[in-house]
Amino acid sequence: MLPKSFRALRGLPSDVWIIAITTLINRAGVMALPFLVLYLTKYLHIAAALAGLSISVYGVGGLITAPLAGRIADRVGPFAVIRVSLAAAGVVMLVVPLVHSLWLILALTFVWAVVADAARPATMAALTEAASPEQRKAAIAVNRLAVNLGMSIGPAVGGFIALYSFPLIFVVDGLTSIFAAGVLTTLLWLRARSGNRGAIEAQYHARAASTTPIFRASVVWRDRAALLFFVTSFLLNLVFSQAQGAMPLYLVRDLHFRESFYGSLFIINTLMIVALEVPLNVAMAHWALRPALALGTTLIAVGFGALGAAHTVLPIMATVVIWTFGEMIFFPTAAAYVAELAPEGRRGEYMGAFSSTFSLALIVGPWAGVALLDRFSGPVVWIASLACGLIAAAIVGLGRAPNQSRAAPVAVFSESR
Fold first, then answer.
1. How far apart are CA 360 and CA 331, in angstroms?
2. What is the rounded distance in angstroms from the CA atom of residue 352 to the CA atom of residue 71?
3. Which residues have CB under 8 Å from 223's CB, separation 6+?
4. In degrees, to the nearest 5, what angle opens at C-alpha 171 toward C-alphas 169 and 174?
5. Between the CA of residue 173 and those of 105, 156, 186, what are the distances in Å?
6. What confidence category does residue 210 fall into, taking pLDDT thresholds of 50, 70 and 90?
7. Domains in the chain and their CATH numbers?
């Protein structure tokens, strides 16, 4: 029998489950990006310094596409953007193994990021459109559960495929992405055939006639509360990106742990998210958003900051537990907060700007963390991370509380369909 917190999710709209199923299928096939640098260095024998450009190029593509994709989602509906994003990304990945020039691969990586990352703001817009304000944190947590379950499969399978053929990784990833687009299309068709338009299509259909053009003047950059929060998100993601930036180098090179120990930390992270994130967000559904954001931000800051004083196995694992709790609280709450800040009909636009903070942090964060680590020392990196995260937590307190009212969670998470 399911725990009570999971049974409570039966009250979530069908749109949330359609998105989660699509996400799970797509993420279960994600293996090309994690192995991209290894593919370039080991298979195509490209210098590591040049191969590393591929991740930066991917980050730039994601930064560029997020705001535009959010506006398109407002205009045509998020499901349309997600479907095209999945299918187009799959096609690009099928082309990558046919190209052997670094510069052509970098160009394809940029295009890949532009089409693939278009799904991120559209997905967040779809989830927050479908769910009521009180359901949003749980809906996003369900989708993050799908992400983490899928990501526990994709890279692991990719490792075995790489033993046989590096190019095959791109083929499998591309076909899975196209298959996910097909599943999404099928599920939407089956729902429409049953006479259920769905919450998202109903909302976009109702306002389609009055929707303003895609290339309209943005209201995001005149919204002080949104801008303050985007600064918070950027600073927080600078800290969080050290899990792929300074952290592996610090643990393996400076503290002399094996690479397998670093990998095992993500097993702890994934298991915690799978087991606890949904129940945690259901339990916190009645919390006001800003205190929850401040708590999540502080836990991430403290978790990474504590690495400066952790030099043995158990303390290092404890830091991962701390920042994982912060991750489970912050990211679902952050998307819910942005959704409530957004004016009607502009949710995709706001989610696009929010997504840009992830991409910008991916470009800057790992590089800055490694540069600090090489120039100074590990403790300097982790003190800087602590300070950056605590500044982000302080900025959360400067923002305004959204105007929407919140009912008690028991009224939202009905156990009956």
1. 16
2. 7
3. 341
4. 105
5. 16, 13, 20
6. very low
7. 14-214 (1.20.1250.20), 217-401 (1.20.1250.20)
Contacts of 276 (CB under 8 A, 6+ apart): 328
- How sure is the predictor about 233, in pLDDT bands with cuts at 50, 70 and 90? very high
The pLDDT assigned to 193 comes to: 82
Q: Which of 135, 180, 127, 84 is nearest to 348 (CA)?
A: 127
What's the whole-number mean pLDDT along residues 218-226? 82
Cα–Cα dist 351/81, whole Å: 13
pLDDT surpasses 70 at 400: no
What's the Cα-to-Cα distance from 264 to each of 144, 145, 237, 308, rounded to whole Å?
A: 20, 19, 22, 19
pLDDT in tens, 23-34: 999 999 988 888
Q: Give the model confidence (pLDDT) of 401-415 as tens digits.
A: 665 433 333 333 333
Residue with the bigger pLDDT between 215 and 141: it is 141
Rounded Cα gap, residues 396 and 229, in angstroms = 6
For tokens 């596409």, the residue is 65
Buried b (16+ CB within 10 A) or exposed e, 85-95: bbbbbbebbbe
Judge whether 328 and 272 are in contact, CB under 8 Å: yes
- Using the structure block, give the residue that is written with the tokens 């400076």: 254
| Angle (nearest 5°) at CA 325 between 360 and 225 | 45
What separation, in Å, do the N-terminal and C-terminal C-alpha atoms of the chain show?
A: 17
Tokens 């944190």 identify what position?
Answer: 137
Question: What does pLDDT average to over the chain?
Answer: 86
CA distances from 66 to 96, 116, 147, 383 (A): 22, 10, 19, 31
Token pair in block for residue 356? 């840009």
Is residue 70 within 8 A of residue 350, CB to CB? The reply is yes
